């Protein structure tokens, strides 16, 4: 991705150093980063390559080459927990994101709607702070035009009983169990 791991001022998480590091910490951090990367390449990358070849076939390019072709990277960190560090725009911190271990069943109509989504489904919500019903007519019309032009089913958190326009591929609800829908 091109994101820099500079051991002179970015402590390795597993070593427990805090900023600012002294000279000895920086040397230890540099050696630790080198050993960590070497161990990853030797023990883990080769195992991952074998598994990927079993699943996707032996003509799969090397995982290192595929990684270099990635256009975005989601990382399980957050600056509030691990300290700030420079990140490229295509590296997104999502630390703390999770899906609960218990997934509740969905209402029958919602399950049937999602089961009939052969081209996939889109979950659309503006959250609890912005009401979709207060959207200006031009923006609402633009969103509805896009929704009507795609083959996917759309589940929209909409605060009133009905949309201004009836569309077969759009289902609205005043409240939606987001985790359960996303886990379906």
Notes on the protein architecture:
The structure is a single chain. This protein has 184 residues and is of the alpha/beta class. It has two domains: 13-93, no CATH class; 108-183, Glycogen Phosphorylase B (Rossmann fold, 3-Layer(aba) Sandwich). Helices cover 39% and strands 10% of the residues. It has six helices and five strands. The chain has helices spanning 23-56, 63-68, 79-82, 108-115, 137-149, 178-183; strands at 73-75, 91-93, 121-124, 153-157, 170-173. The protein has a three-stranded parallel sheet. A two-stranded parallel sheet has the order 1-2. Strand 3, helix 5 (137-149) and strand 4 form a beta-alpha-beta unit. It is elongated, with a radius of gyration of 23 Å. The two termini are 31 Å apart. The model has no long low-confidence stretch (mean pLDDT 87).
Task: Give the structure's gist in a few sentences.
With 184 residues, this protein is of the alpha/beta class. Helix content is 39%, strand content 10%.
């Amino acid at each position: 991705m091109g994101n820099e791991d500079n051991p002179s001022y970015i402590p390795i998480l597993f070593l427990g150093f805090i900023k600012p590091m002294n000279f000895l910490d920086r040397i230890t951090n540099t050696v630790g980063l080198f050993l960590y990367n070497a161990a990853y390449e030797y023990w883990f990358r080769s195992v991952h390559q074998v598994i990927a070849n079993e699943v996707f076939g032996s003509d799969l390019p090397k995982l290192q080459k595929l990684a270099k072709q990635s256009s975005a990277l989601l990382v399980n960190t957050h600056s509030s927990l691990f300290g700030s560090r420079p990140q490229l725009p295509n590296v997104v911190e999502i630390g703390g994101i999770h899906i609960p271990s218990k997934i509740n069943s969905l209402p029958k109509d919602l399950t049937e709607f999602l089961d009939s989504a052969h081209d996939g489904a889109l979950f659309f919500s503006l959250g609890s702070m912005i009401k979709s019903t207060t959207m200006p007519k031009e923006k609402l019309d633009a969103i509805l035009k896009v929704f009507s032009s795609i083959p996917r089913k759309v589940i929209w958190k909409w605060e009133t009983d009905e949309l201004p326009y009836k569309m077969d591929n759009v289902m609205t609800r005043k409240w939606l169990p987001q985790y359960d829908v996303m886990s379906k």
